[in-house]
Amino acid sequence: MPNIYFILFELSIYLQLAICLRHAWKHGTANLLRLFAGMIFGVTLELATIRQLHAYEYGRFLVMVLDVPLCIGVEWSCIIYSVMEFSNGTSLPYWTRPILDGLLALNIDLAVDAVAIRLGFWNWGQGLEFQYFGVPFANFWAWFWVVAFFSLGYRLLSHRTDSVGIWLSSLLALSVGLLGVIGSNALITFVIPFDYHAATVAPVLIGALVIVISARPQLYQTPVDSVAFWIPFIAHMVMLIMGLVSGVILNPPLLLILSLTMISIALILHRPSFLAAAGPSKAL
Question: For residues 75 and 49, is the Cβ–Cβ distance under 8 A?
C-alpha cells in the first residue's frame, strides 16, 4: 500500500502547480513559458545533480522520471515562480532580485528538508544528527544558487516586451540555471574541502542577506498576486502538519521551533499577499 505521506506530499505540490498555472494563464505566454521551463529545469537539475554528486536519493513516488519524482521538479518551478512574483513587486534593483529569490526559497527549505528526510521522501545517507538535522550545509548553498541562477537567466531578457523577451527568456533561464547549478555543485563538492563547507555557505548566505537589506527595498511597491503567498504557505503547512501527525518534527523538538520560525517569517513577509488571498478589497 502506498505511503499516505508520500501521496499527500505529491498532491500538495500538484495543487501548487494548479495555482501557478491559473496565475500564468491569466498573465500571458511569457509566464506560462517560465512555469513550464521551471519544471523542465527542476527535473533536469535533479537528474544531473544525483549523477554528478551521488549525495542523495529519492523514495518512490507515484510519478517518477527515472529516479527523480516528477513532483520535485514541479515544486522547484512553483517555488521559483512564486518568489519571482514577490521580488518583482519590490523596489530592489533588477540585478539584486535573484538574490532575494534565492533567500526566499531558503526560507521554505529550512523548514521542509529536515522533516522530509524523516518521512523518507529523500535520504542524504548521513543520519539524522548530521549538520542541520541530517541535512548537509551544502544543500542550502545549492538551494540558493539553483533559484538565483534561474532567476538571473530569466531576467537577462525578460525586461523586453517583444518576441525575444517572451520566447527566449525561459530558454536563457534554463541554460544559465543548469550551468550555474552544475558549476556551483562542483565548487562546493570537489573544490572546497568538506570541513570548510559551513565556513563557505554561511558567509555567502549572510552576504546575500546583507546585500538585500542594504538596498533597503520597499516591499509591495507594486501589487503582488496571492500566488506569492499560497506556494510557501502550502509548502510550509503541509510539512508542518505531516510532521506533527507523524511526530517526526519533534525529533528533536528544536526542529519544530525552527519550522515555526520559518513559517512566521514567511507569514510576515507575505501578509499583504495573504490579505489579497482573503479578498480583493483587502489586497494592500
Answer: no
Give the pLDDT confidence of 74-130 residue by residue, as tens digits. Answer: 999 999 999 999 999 999 998 899 999 999 999 999 999 999 999 999 999 999 999
Cβ atoms 44, 70 nearer than 8 A = no
Indicate the pTM of the whole model.
0.94
> 106: number of CA atoms within 13 Å, CB side?
23
